[in-house]
Design goal:
Strand content: 15-25%
Radius of gyration: 24 Å
Number of helices: 12
Pfam families: CtpB_N-like (PF22694), PDZ_6 (PF17820), Peptidase_S41 (PF03572)
Keywords: Hydrolase, Protease, Serine protease
GO molecular function, one term: serine-type endopeptidase activity
GO cellular component, one term: outer membrane-bounded periplasmic space
Oligomer: single chain
CATH class of the largest domain: Alpha Beta
Family: Belongs to the peptidase S41A family.
Largest sheet: 7 strands, mixed
Number of strands: 21
């Protein structure tokens, strides 16, 4: 059985890597059998290596040459296959476990400074009294202005039990003060949730990580304790770039009847031809029991709306596709990213590895998500004024060398190109406005337009449906649908 097989070969992952590029991966042990090698071409590779080493303008590090050759070979396949050197392998592992060493704050950029969005509960930053909207002006002796968000993150992360000095400007108290924080292992929060109003709950997954399923169960149990007669639930997967595949199967299973198909995969390897079902053996970890065992039975029937957008990818699309195909939920929002391929992560040594695309995945009805995504049942804009910049968001179909869906040829959509030109012009206009007029309302607030529409749907009230969204599709699939 595939579920049992996975327990032997490794763990199943679908982690977010480098912003919008996402993966669904299945980590396995390296295979013993290798294909026969093409000797003539390898001689050519060796000849180029020799020439570069002897003829290049200055000496080149041999290890770097080999590492670059591997990177180039793999990067030429598709946007999600990748060679992991020591540093990128560590970052990948941090992404899927949701654990890293740092101070424990979610941050964004504002007016050239770093803004605290929220401290992670129980983290060193939380204990040090940092608050949402605090501005970080210096990290140790380095002024923050001019640093990218990534550079700021790197400076705040480090070794456990080392100290970092943050200089904080707190606007509402008009004061600047230093805070020394000792770094420790942080576990990121990928689940948020609350009662939006009596009878209606909201639960948001920002990523599918190792702790997501346990945190999801805990949050659902809390909502049902607050109101045992929930009339409706919104599962918010907007901007969720993916995560662990077993977590996606578990979250889907929480809402679906037992043993129905959640997702299928297909590729060259025998282990790439799999069916994942809504049953514990397909998502529970090697040690431990069914993580969903404490969930209330009412969760299987509670009216459900799933919110998605162009930033919902990979594992998010598995959940949305499964709940849509089984008619368990109404999917609302905009067409998802379209990342429907599976990557296998294989170690090459103690601290390097290869992430390689090994399969496409399909929703229970057999539809490939690749380069197309999930089309919501109800298209809803980001705001009452529409989704002015949605067309500018990168989707799988926009990435260089992206894998085709395998279900018919792709055709460039002139409508989409036109929509992009219009969005660019609007963005230029928007950039002229003062920053406070440009802010998008925070998810989960009463100004969150798609969430308000989702609640209207659950209550049987009218929904403001998008009049402008263009569905990205190809001609072959239009005939089939």
């Amino acid at each position: 059985m595939m579920g049992q097989k996975l327990k032997i070969t490794g763990w199943v992952a679908a982690g977010a890597v480098a912003g919008v590029l996402t993966t669904v991966s299945l980590q396995t042990v390296a295979r013993g059998s290798l294909a026969p090698l093409p000797l003539e071409e390898l001689q050519q590779l060796a000849a180029v290596f020799g020439m570069v080493k002897s003829d290049y303008v200055e000496p080149v590090d041999e290890k770097k040459l080999i590492s670059d050759a591997i990177s180039g070979m793999v990067a030429g396949l598709d946007p999600h296959s990748q060679y992991f050197d020591k540093k990128s392998f560590k970052e990948f592992r941090e992404g899927t476990t949701g654990r890293f060493v740092g101070v424990g704050i979610e941050i964004s950029q504002e007016d050239g400074l770093i803004k605290v969005v929220s401290p992670i509960e129980g983290s060193p930053a939380f204990r040090a009294g940092l608050k949402p909207n605090d501005l970080i002006t210096k990290i140790d002796d380095t002024a923050v202005r001019g640093l990218s968000l990534n550079e700021a993150v790197k400076r705040m992360r480090g070794e456990a039990n080392t100290k970092v000095l943050l200089t904080i400007f707190r606007k509402d108290e008009s004061r600047t003060f230093p805070v020394t924080i000792t770094r420790e292992e942080i576990r990121t929060q990928s689940v948020r949730g609350k009662m939006i109003e009596p009878g209606y709950g909201w639960i948001r997954l920002s990523q599918f990580q190792e702790r997501t399923v346990d945190d999801f169960v805990k949050k659902i149990d809390e909502l049902y304790k607050e109101d045992p007669n929930l009339k409706g639930l919104v599962l918010d997967l907007r901007n969720d770039p993916g995560g662990l595949l077993d977590a996606a199967v578990a979250v889907s299973s929480a809402f679906l009847p037992e043993n129905v198909t959640v997702v299928t995969t297909d590729g060259q390897l025998a282990e790439s031809k799999s069916v994942y079902k809504a049953a514990p053996e397909f998502y529970q970890r090697r040690s431990g029991s069914d993580p969903l065992r404490s969930l209330p039975a009412a969760l299987k029937t509670v009216p459900l709306v799933v919110l998605v957008n162009e930033g919902s990818a990979s594992a998010s699309e598995i959940v949305a596709g499964a709940l849509q195909d089984h008619k368990r939920a109404t999917i609302m929002g905009s067409q998802t990213f379209g990342k429907g391929s599976v990557q296998t992560v294989r170690p090459l040594g103690p601290d390097t590895g290869l992430k390689i695309t090994t399969a496409r995945y399909y929703t229970p009805s057999g539809t490939s998500i690749q380069a197309k995504g999930i089309v919501p049942n109800v298209l809803v804009d980001e705001s009452a004024e529409g989704s002015p910049f949605a067309a500018l968001r990168m989707r799988e179909a926009d990435l260089e060398k992206h894998l085709a869906s395998g279900q018919g040829p792709e055709v460039k959509d002139p409508e989409r190109e036109k929509a992009r030109d219009e969005a660019r012009k609007r963005l230029e206009e928007e950039a002229k406005k003062p920053p406070q007029d440009r802010k998008v309302p925070e998810f989960g607030t009463d100004k969150d337009f798609p969430l308000v529409q989702a609640l209207n749907r659950l209550k049987g009230q009218p929904v403001l449906v998008s009049k402008t969204q263009v569905i990205v599709d190809n001609k072959e699939e239009k005939k089939e649908n």
